[in-house]
Amino acid sequence: MSNSHLFLKPGFIKVPLQNGVGRYVCQLQRVVLKFCKNHGSSRGMRDFIESDLVNFAMDNPAVVVYLKPRRHRSAVIKAEYLNGDQQWLGCKNFTKEEILKWLNLLVTQSQYHTGTRIRKLWHTDNPSIQGPWTPFTFRDPKLNLASFPNEELAKPQDSNETNHEALIELFKKQKLDDLEQRRAE
């Protein structure tokens, strides 16, 4: 294990506004495509801009696309998200198909989990006032006063019927109760 986690900001994974419950809100706000007009490593970016940029912009109307030509620099994609995070992607010698795949990835990811060291594996915004559940939550209180080893508690339970048979009996009982209710009405 490396010490790279020390430089990540700690936090929890949060889903913004329960995204996808009511309507989907694209988390990518802005994309800046930086490229050189003459440099050979920006050829894929220039080909993408000439052929596929209009279709990408029409498919993703919520994303603002900026073009920024720069002299003697390799191509870069800068993505800015609604939460203020930014992501940089160097596109040196990428083809236009690779650039389109990366842009589609940036559009679909949420950016809430990258660059964050997770404090706990489980987190809720509305914690229970009853406290956490433990395996002893619904145990019989007489176990608090029992002294162990206890012969009575060590005995196997006498159950001649299997779980399957118990379920069948419950089902039959429910059916009889429903019939009695209908007759009473």
Q: Care to give the gist of this entry?
A:
With 185 residues, this protein is of the alpha/beta class. The protein is 30% helix and 17% strand. A 4-stranded mixed β-sheet has the order 3-2-4-5, with helices on one face. A two-stranded parallel sheet has the order 1-6.
Topology:
Elements: E1 9-11, E2 28-35, H1 43-51, H2 53-59, E3 64-69, E4 76-81, E5 86-90, H3 96-108, E6 116-118, H4 151-154, H5 163-184
Structure characterization notes:
The model has no long low-confidence stretch (mean pLDDT 82). The longest helix has 22 residues, at 163-184. The protein is an alpha/beta fold. The strands form 2 sheets. Strands 3-2-4-5 form a 4-stranded mixed beta sheet, covered by helices on one side. It has a two-stranded parallel ribbon with strand order 1-6. It is elongated and about 85 Å long. It has a domain at 7-118: Glutaredoxin (3-Layer(aba) Sandwich). Helices cover 30% and strands 17% of the residues. α1 (43-51) crosses α3. This is Large ribosomal subunit protein mL43. InterPro entries: Ribosomal_mL43 (IPR039927), Ribosomal_mL43/mS25/NADH_DH (IPR007741), Thioredoxin-like_sf (IPR036249). Keywords: Mitochondrion, Ribonucleoprotein, Ribosomal protein. Belongs to the mitochondrion-specific ribosomal protein mL43 family. GO terms for molecular function: structural constituent of ribosome.
